[in-house]
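Researcher: Can you fold this with nicotinamide-adenine-dinucleotide in place?
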Amino acid sequence: MEPYGVPLANFPLKYRPDDIDIVVAYDVDESKVGKSAYDVAKSLMGDQFPVPQALKDIEVRRGIHLGSARGMPYSAKGLEESLGLEGAVGSLIDDWRSLGVDVVVNVMTTEKGEAFGSAAALRRALESGGAGLTASHAYAYALAEHSARRGGASFVNAIPTPLANDEGVVELFRSSGALVLGDDGATGATPLTADLLEHMAERNRKVEFVVQFNIGGNTDFLALTDPGRNMMKELTKSAMVEDILGYDAPHYIKPTGYLEPLGDRKFVAMHLSYVSFNNAVDDVYVLARINDSPALAGILVDLTRLAKIALERGIRGTAYEVNAFYMKRPGPAGSPAPSKILAFDALKKWLSASS
Ligand SMILES: NC(=O)c1ccc[n+]([C@@H]2O[C@H](COP(=O)([O-])OP(=O)(O)OC[C@H]3O[C@@H](n4cnc5c(N)ncnc54)[C@H](O)[C@@H]3O)[C@@H](O)[C@H]2O)c1
């Protein structure tokens, strides 16, 4: 296939897209665990998109659950139920050591989660299976341990749980010689809204309000009908408004609904109203149908390569220059969420300067 949707496909990076070797996948859905990634993909997509034969060799193994699929319409079971949490983390580390894993990518169902603030608090929660601990935290912790034992590994957090935005996680990663990129992959309408806001800011137009919502029919949209999970998306999607405009224009930016027949092609609507010269009020409307999963997959091709390249360049903790372009809420905590146009330019300069 042509690498459309892979932002750095034509930029000379050390690793090409086809250098990525997927070695294992994890899930907690009983209907997926034990199958090959090929069989799972085929059962979800049928003949809609080509599914690579190579995925027949990828086994979907049982992951850590910690309640992440609670309320979803399938039965879920985690490794921790048979091994305990410590045993489950140990089992992942063993897998990753024997498979020589460089990068772990987190694309599990959106979960409700908060920052721990310190590596010690995160460690305590893991040791006691404590409150606030999410599956993402457990996977990230396992990656940090894996990294400490083998001298480096990276974690790409494409979901909203704050990991690159958690000083505790970043501190843990730095001290383990690891790198975390995050949080929440910037795809679909959110980066487009960011760039439209930049356009308004550069012309000194006063944005009166921004409304942006989407409705989809995949399981992520079903999960997002839960208010706790939805709030996580609202937080990562809204981070940019004040950062780009310099003031907090009234906004409503979140996924609003689930409608099964829409499938993976979500419906997106946006309305942006602004004041122009001599108090003229203009409006921009955008309507779109966007294939949700391919949009994320394209940027994961870059993020996986950059996660390894940044680590090889000695970067530990997190890498803002990468996060600023690829993530809705770029870590570390407190960093601005700039427009994607400016962030892409800065990323290319950063890559050229540090190569
Ligand atoms: N365009 C996009 O698709 C996009 C963009 C940005 C972020 N994301 C994020 O990526 C994630 C995945 O989105 P999706 O549309 O592929 O969702 P999905 O529901 O199709 O897939 C999520 C998968 O994670 C599995 N899962 C749930 N809990 C798990 C756990 N504890 N361990 C391992 N697997 C687990 C589910 O069983 C399911 O197979 C979501 O968190 C979403 O917010 C998606």
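Model: Folded with nicotinamide-adenine-dinucleotide in place. The first strand starts at residue 25 and ends at 27.
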